[in-house]
Amino acid sequence: GAGVSQSPSNKVTEKGKDVELRCDPISGHTALYWYRQSLGQGLEFLIYFQGNSAPDKSGLPSDRFSAERTGGSVSTLTIQRTQQEDSAVYLCASSLAGADYEQYFGPGTRLTVT
Amino acid sequence: GENVEQHPSTLSVQEGDSAVIKCTYSDSASNYFPWYKQELGKGPQLIIDIRSNVGEKKDQRIAVTLNKTAKHFSLHITETQPEDSAVYFCAARSGGFKTIFGAGTRLFVKA
Question: Helix or strand or coil: residue A84?
Fold first, then answer.
């Protein structure tokens, strides 16, 4: 079946511009996660959705970052007024129900802020 | 805060040799330890996991061991093949939804 998809695969933007990154989870997966992976680094947890609600937003690096999920499916991560330090690969993962289920990752969106 | 340390950052082995990657975690409440393999341009993929009520788990050429007392867990790959070359991540979770990842190990298997 279809896995987690993310779009765009690559995004180059100028400093100060806003960007939107999209994640389509596996059908039926109610849990959705966003991570950031900087070059050569591990995965940094950003936010988690259970259904449409996000019980924990503590991983978002600043108030320039926000995320929403509608209809319990597609999620959008928005970065406002992008900075060069926002350059990274943004990964989305989804799983059944929550904590005890395997997370399936998408291929990521590579964001470059010039 | 919670932390997972992973070593080595880079590992180069000859085809057929074994590879071992080690991780330590700080949160004693951690009870689930997945390992992920990430190939170039792809998202991480779960390869094996272990829960805190088990000390060792094996799946063909891959095994994971867990020492809860020392808060250590390790990935062992035997009879390595060139296709095992990738970045490997350990992770720890403490029953909630938040998974803490190590910084990754880049494994090179030389043919």
Answer: helix
Q: What is the pLDDT of residue B99?
A: 87
Q: Which residues of B touch A (CB under 8 A)?
A: 4, 6, 32, 34, 36, 41-46, 49, 89, 91, 93, 95-104
**Is residue A113 a contact partner of residue A13, using CB atoms and an 8 Å limit?**
yes
Closest CA to A80 of A36, A8, A16: A16
Mean pLDDT of all residues in B59-76? 96
- Measure Cα distances from B39 to A46, B45, B76, B93 in Å: 22, 9, 18, 23
Note whether A42 contacts B95, CB cutoff 8 Å.
Answer: no
B44 contacts on A by Cβ (under 8 Å): 43, 91, 105
Mean pLDDT for the stretch of residues A19-43: 91
Instruction: Give the 3-state DSSP-derived string for chain B, with helices as H, strands as E and coil as C.
Output: CCCEEEECCEEEEECCCCEEEEEEECCCCCCEEEEEEECCCCCCEEEEEEECCCCEEEECCEEEEEECCCCEEEEEECCCCHHHCEEEEEEEECCCCCEEECCCEEEEEEC
pLDDT band at B13, cuts 50/70/90?
very high
**Helix ranges, A30-80 (H):** none
Tell how strand B99-101 and strand B86-93 pair up. Answer: antiparallel
Contact between B12 and B77 (Cβ < 8 Å): no
